[in-house]
Amino acid sequence: MKRIPKLDCETCEGRTHSVFADLCGNELGALNHNKVCNTYKKGQIVFYEGNMPMGLYCINQGKIKVFKTGRGGKEQIVRLAKDGDVLGYRSLIGNEPYTATAEALEDSTICFTDRKMFEQLLQTDPALPKNFMELLCQELRDAENFLQSMAQKTVRERLAEVILILRKKYGTHPTQENRLNVELSREDIANLVGTATETVIRLLSDFKDEKIVNLEGRVLHILNPVKLMAIAKVDD
Amino acid sequence: MKRIPKLDCETCEGRTHSVFADLCGNELGALNHNKVCNTYKKGQIVFYEGNMPMGLYCINQGKIKVFKTGRGGKEQIVRLAKDGDVLGYRSLIGNEPYTATAEALEDSTICFTDRKMFEQLLQTDPALPKNFMELLCQELRDAENFLQSMAQKTVRERLAEVILILRKKYGTHPTQENRLNVELSREDIANLVGTATETVIRLLSDFKDEKIVNLEGRVLHILNPVKLMAIAKVDD
DNA sequence: CGACTGGTTGAGTGGTCTCAAGTCCTGTGG
DNA sequence: CCACAGGACTTGAGACCACTCAACCAGTCG
Q1: Whole-prediction pTM value?
Q2: Are the beta carbons of B9 and B31 closer than 8 angstroms?
Q3: Quick check: B125 pLDDT over 70?
Q4: How confident is the model at residue B236 (pLDDT cuts 50, 70, 90)?
Q5: Contact: B130, A129; criterion CB under 8 Å
Q6: Residue B104 · residue B44 · CB < 8 Å
């Protein structure tokens, strides 16, 4: 992690689609004045499970995984984040220690505002609580949907679902239509699906044999999204 | 379901611990004026997955399960509710169809306020958005914790965890210290744990043999909570 | 009294996990 | 440039947890 010169919220690409989309000039100014910006190298930790949140993280650029660590050290990824997403607000609002750890999946730049600023913004801007409520509702819906998948689907079905979720979250490569715009290790995929790494490898290999995806190392192409949806048993 | 005379929010036992705890006199009056009250018999549906929410439900008295229905009709219970809890706010705030069905676990009385009133209250009372944010944060944390359990624990471990969750949520019988204050069918327990009914029966029977619980039909006594916690691998 | 629902028990199957033995990469230092 | 170490990835074999299917019992209701 390394401090870098302040980025300007005003021109931040991600912000326009974020929970801070409709901050007015004054508030933006205050936010700009208060925050600090940092870069994180791939693999570096943004915050640790168990620590108290001191403020809010906003991703300017990059990809982050948020995971809980169980007995035996096995990770369960509970959220994925990208440019424009905020991090750590769950524990900040609930005023409790982080229940998960956030780690950079690739080199990322992330801004930080302290708790005080955050609470002040929450009070001055009436749209902000509303936006956060809606964000929380979405997250909760996603979590409950995935909970159901965990409980009722096979690993094969969940893997198909996860690949579709990755496409929805991170989209496809700018120039290559079918290429997922994120590269995860087999282990990360397993920790997302909730299974063993070996099982992911075997099933991905099956998908490749069935011409549903193509694999070149961590680069994944979706060749047959329709079939993938059929396997995942999702409708959208 | 049957309409009953209006209950008074002012004297509602549950409200004092609820998200509406700090409504002022004016707002309470408006709420009282607007709402309607109904009784639901055990097994009756409060709202259906897929329908649009028309307002907010507040449980005056009773117990409710909220579940999602998967292919093959298998239910996954995603939430349990009791006196003082609000229902259906997730979809109401998110302005989307219900993603789950709510059904009475026992005879219950539930009040209903329409969307308009709800939105008005949300704007007039600054504490309300805050309370809902905190509620959503809790729910999200619980959902993520349970997601991890689903992914990493065995059915036996999850069953132990669920029994402890039931105790935490509904408490114990007024007169019998160890007796769970809720009676669920084996199938409901299975739909909570995310397993087959037969598996729940076998494992509960194991717990009984090990003197961890006692069973008389649906009445469950926790004889050895320490051992239960050890099995569930939880800390609190 | 049958029909029905909820609970229980048994047998067999198979999906997934674990363990173990490699192979393939990639970065590093000589 | 090569050798090497370490991590990521792959493949195989065996074990077992949990599911499904099926039969049966107990209580309840019309």
Answers
A1: 0.95
A2: yes
A3: yes
A4: low
A5: yes
A6: yes
Tell me how far apart the alpha carbons of residues A102 and A87 are, in angstroms, rounded to a whole number: 8
| B142 CB within 8 Å of a chain A CB | no
pLDDT in tens, B13-33: 999 999 999 898 899 999 999
Gap from B175 CA to C8 C1', in Å?
A: 30
**What does the block give as tokens for A199?**
């099982």
- Report the gap between the CA of A164 and the closest CA in chain B (Å): 19
The candidate with the shortest Cα–Cα distance to A191, out of A148, A138, A150, A133, is: A150
Helices (H), B72-173: 89-94, 115-124, 127-152, 155-170
- Asked whether the beta carbons of A76 and A191 are under 8 A apart, the reply is yes
**Phi and psi at residue B221, to the nearest 5°:** -110, 135
**What is the Cα–Cα distance from B93 to B115, expressed in whole angstroms?**
9
Rounded to whole angstroms, the Cα distance separating A145 from A100 reads: 20
Residues of chain B neighbouring A150 (CB-CB closer than 8 A): 147, 150-151, 194
At A235, is the pLDDT very low, low, confident or very high (cuts 50, 70, 90)?
low
Element (H, E) at A118: helix A115-124
Convert the pLDDT of each residue in B131-154 to its tens digit.
999 999 999 999 999 999 999 999
Residue A4, both tokens: 């870098």
Q: Does nucleic acid strand D have an atom less than 7 angstroms from the CB of A198?
A: yes
CB-strand contact B125/C, under 7 Å? no
Reduced to 3 states (helix: H, G, I; strand: E, B; else coil), residue A196 is: coil
**A181 is near strand C: CB distance < 7 Å:** no
| Segment A127-153 mean pLDDT | 96
CA distance B169 to A194: 27
pLDDT digits (tens, 9 = 90+) for A82-121: 999 999 999 999 999 999 999 999 999 999 999 999 999 9
CA A189 to chain centre: 13
Q: What backbone phi and psi angles, to 5 degrees, belong to A81?
A: -135, 155
